[in-house]
């Protein structure tokens, strides 16, 4: 049975050294039992081809070795939920910080347009995300064995009484939604308050706002609702489950967004436009009208969320 010995040896080469002899003996005994049963059934000795057919059915040596000694994943299965949650949190924070960095860079007078602004956010976030992904993965992979066992013990200490109440699928709050909202609120607060902060507190040269004086005044009055939106997002991040108070707060924030977007779209020019370089190609009035239409279209998003939250509150009150 030279072919069987070659097969067992090929399997052993794929195994850890301390397990090779024991698993090799077990595997060879298993193969010989199958061959003896087949030979007894046929009543004759097996040919080399029949032996090869039996070994082929068992599969390649690499696959058989993995059945006896499975490859340990880089991140243990019981740590994977914590790993994914940490990854979402860190990437979300990095995205918000990249929005802050690029917006402050833009508002300090850097000479680049909207496309460069978006590309700068994308490239900066990808660079930070690669570093964050590598650092988190290596941290979990190199976590000491006693820490890993401690995680298992803590996982066994949960109490059924601590489980959240039964809720509909929509009550679960997605991390991507939370961090998208946080990035939006941070961006708005920066473009509203950065020029004023630069002028009043930093002692620097006055920085012109992208908004007209009337629009900027409206947005300043609206700022408390943006801060309320930030607090609402942080609350959602902590609880991860919609409740009546949380829905009510989110409804107020979205309703305020609808009102401010409609007001900006209906009251005079919205942006201060530097038309020196492109006035021959685009009409400033046409650009202002396009901005106003864009604001009205954008107001449909929080408007939809207002209706959605009202319907969800009615479901929770039943």
Summarize the structure.
The protein has eleven helices and no strands.
Polypeptide structure, described:
With 318 residues, the chain is mostly helical. It folds into 3 domains: 2-68, no CATH class; 73-149, no CATH class; 167-318, no CATH class. Helices cover 73% and strands 0% of the residues. The protein has helices spanning 2-13, 20-42, 48-58, 61-68, 80-107, 114-141, 145-155, 175-200, 213-239, 244-266, 284-317. The longest helix has 34 residues, at 284-317.
Features:
mainly alpha, 318 residues
Distance between the termini: 74 Å
| Silhouette | elongated
- Count of DSSP helices? 11
Instruction: Quickly give the structural class.
Output: mainly alpha
Average per-residue pLDDT, rounded, comes to 77
Low-confidence stretches: none
Largest β sheet strand count, sense and barrel closure: none
Query: What's the helical proportion of residues?
Result: over 70%
Question: Hey, roughly how much beta strand do the residues contain?
Answer: under 5%
Order of helices and strands: HHHHHHHHHHH
As for the number of domains, it is 3
**DSSP, total strands:** 0
Rg, Å, rounded: 32 Å
Topology:
Elements (H helix, E strand, L loop, with lengths): L1 H12 L6 H23 L5 H11 L2 H8 L11 H28 L6 H28 L3 H11 L19 H26 L12 H27 L4 H23 L17 H34 L1
Helix pairs in contact: 1-2, 1-4, 5-6, 5-8, 8-9, 9-10, 10-11
């Amino acid at each position: 049975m030279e072919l069987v010995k070659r097969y067992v040896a090929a399997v052993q080469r794929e195994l850890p050294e301390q397990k090779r002899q024991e698993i090799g003996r077990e595997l060879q005994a298993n193969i010989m039992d199958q061959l003896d049963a087949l030979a007894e059934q046929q009543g004759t000795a097996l040919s080399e081809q029949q032996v090869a057919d039996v070994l082929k059915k068992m599969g390649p040596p690499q696959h058989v070795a993995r059945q006896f000694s499975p490859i340990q994943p880089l991140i243990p299965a019981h740590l994977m939920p914590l790993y994914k949650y940490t990854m979402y949190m860190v990437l979300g924070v990095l995205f918000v910080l990249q929005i802050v960095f690029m917006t402050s860079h833009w508002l300090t007078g850097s000479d680049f347009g909207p496309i460069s602004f978006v590309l700068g956010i994308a490239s900066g976030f990808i660079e930070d995300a690669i570093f964050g992904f590598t650092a988190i993965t290596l941290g979990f992979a190199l976590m000491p064995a006693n820490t890993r066992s401690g995680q298992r013990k803590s996982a066994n200490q949960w109490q059924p009484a601590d489980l959240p109440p039964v809720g509909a699928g929509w009550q679960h709050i997605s991390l991507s939604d939370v961090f998208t909202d946080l990035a939006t609120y941070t961006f708005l607060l920066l473009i509203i308050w950065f020029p004023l902060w630069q002028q009043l507190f930093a002692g620097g040269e006055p920085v012109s706002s992208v908004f007209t004086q009337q629009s900027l005044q409206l947005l300043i009055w609206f700022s408390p609702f943006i801060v309320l939106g930030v607090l609402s997002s942080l609350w959602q991040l902590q609880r991860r489950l919609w409740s009546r108070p949380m829905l009510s707060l989110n409804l107020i924030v979205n309703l305020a967004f609808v009102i401010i977007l409609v007001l900006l779209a209906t009251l005079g020019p919205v942006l201060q436009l530097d038309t020196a370089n492109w006035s021959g190609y685009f009409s400033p009035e046409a650009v202002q009208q396009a901005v106003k239409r864009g604001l009205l279209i954008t107001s449909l998003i929080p408007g939809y969320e207002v209706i959605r939250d009202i319907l969800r509150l009615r479901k929770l009150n039943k």
